[in-house]
Amino acid sequence: MKDTIKTILYSWLDRRIPNVIPRGISLDDYLHLEPRKIIVVTGFRRVGKTYLLYQLLCKILQDKNRKEIVYLNFDDERIPRKTEFLTDLIPTIKTTFSEDIKLLFLDEIQDMPDWSKWLRRIHDNEDVELFITGSSSKVSSREIPTELRGRCLEVNLFPLSFQEFLTFKGMVVNPEIVRYSEDEKVKVTRMLNEYLYYGGMPEVVLAAEERKFEMLQQYYSTVVRRDIAERFHVKNEEGLKAMLRLLLNSTRYSISKLYNTLKSLNYEIGKTTLLNYVGYVESSYFIHSLPIFSPKIKDQLQHPRKVYFIDNGFINALSIKLSKNTGRLYENTVAIELLRRTSGIDQDLYYWKERRGKEVDFVLKEGLRVKQLIQVSYDISDPDTKNRETRSLVKAGKELDCDDLLVITGDYEGNEEINGKQIEFIPLWKWLLESYSSKSTASSPYVSPSKALSHSG
């Protein structure tokens, strides 16, 4: 085992750190935290977690000896899935490199046996800073093992935000600008159309257009096989794929409806199994589902949940619809951006619906109060559409005692008073690029270490 570790360590010494396009999030501020924490970078496969580590490595390797810093990727086929590998790791590093190991970067460690117990022992007994990544919620703050509670600080990484997307495409836009020229609007909206259609997976953004869907389909296959079927020992893989196809072509689901539809298609899957499958898919970060807003847990469990995919590219590359559903792409984009902005802080997302059918796409709850209500409507030019969307928003605002009402549109911008409530209308591109001021959903698109510490348990 020690010989295997040494081989991997020496290959790290010779490894060239690839060039990195900086993201809007950085791990720099998570170095040398007091009290010391295990920094856990979570997120969907291929969203750039490894490159976020590289971004930090590129900086610190300018000042430190590489033998004081070790990076390991546990997807390396040379690493056996055995506890002994972890047990021998630190002693072998010290005898091979240096007694004074400063930093340890561990990519995709969650599939190693007893990984959490080992991390706790190293954190408690060694003077080394730990940065780990994982593409499963097993390492997230929601499901982190008991032995690591209070010792970890989670950084949840999403696909590229629209502003990051523009950076990757070589276009610089200042989010502080209040008024844009017509030329700037044309450029930004053209880029938005690409972002809506192909999504923000970093490698896909940089790929040639003819390869984008092929790459997204390969990602999907890998996630289904490795992060869901193999990890959770799914026996009925065809049933799992059939359920995913239904979700990809739907905007909401209930277990009962999924069960009945699959049964009509001759898939024998019980309701409990289906519930487990949905949980597995969510644990891989492939989907996020929102419950209805209600003070009654029973209502949240009984009503359908709205389903959103981690990236628009998957909707377009995998669904069977023959035409582009711009409305759905707008709403999915807003959902992921809201999840990004609220990640790690005391804010929760729901949707709202009343008995007569009026509905609001997003309810942002902060603590015990509803902070903001958001409606997404691509084309607000039709009077009937505008009336339907705003009436629902006003009704929810009065019922939930919320005055911050927002409609995200295709191109209409303004403020209107409707039935005694002020409603702001803003184009999607501008909302995505707006500065994260006190008026926006969160104070920052990413959580600062000091703020996150107060939520880390």
Question: How would you describe this structure to a colleague?
Answer:
Among the domains are: 2-157, Rossmann fold (3-Layer(aba) Sandwich); 325-457, Trna Endonuclease, Chain: A, domain 1 (3-Layer(aba) Sandwich). 42% of the residues lie in helices and 17% in strands. It has 17 helices and 14 strands. It has helices at residues 2-13, 49-60, 83-96, 115-125, 162-168, 182-198, 202-206, 209-230, 237-248, 255-264, 271-283, 297-302, 312-318, 326-342, 383-400, 428-433, 449-453, and strands spanning 38-42, 69-73, 103-107, 129-134, 152-156, 252-253, 287-290, 305-309, 347-353, 359-366, 369-377, 405-409, 414-418, 421-427. It is globular, with a radius of gyration of 23 Å.
Shape: globular
> The biggest beta sheet, please?
6 strands, mixed
| Radius of gyration, taken over Cα atoms and rounded to an integer in Å | 23 Å
Parts with pLDDT < 50 across at least 5 consecutive residues? 436-446, 450-457
N- and C-termini, Cα separation: 35 Å
- CATH fold node name of one domain: Rossmann fold
Q: Find the count of extended strands (DSSP E, 2+ residues).
A: 14
The level 1 CATH classification of one domain is Alpha Beta
Tally of separate helices: 17
**Named CATH architecture of one domain:** 3-Layer(aba) Sandwich
Estimate percent helicity: 40-55%
Strand content: 15-25%
Structural class: alpha/beta
Describe the strand arrangement of the main beta sheet, using strand numbers: 9-10-11-12-14-13
Average pLDDT confidence is 90
By CATH's scheme, which homologous superfamily of one domain applies?
P-loop containing nucleotide triphosphate hydrolases
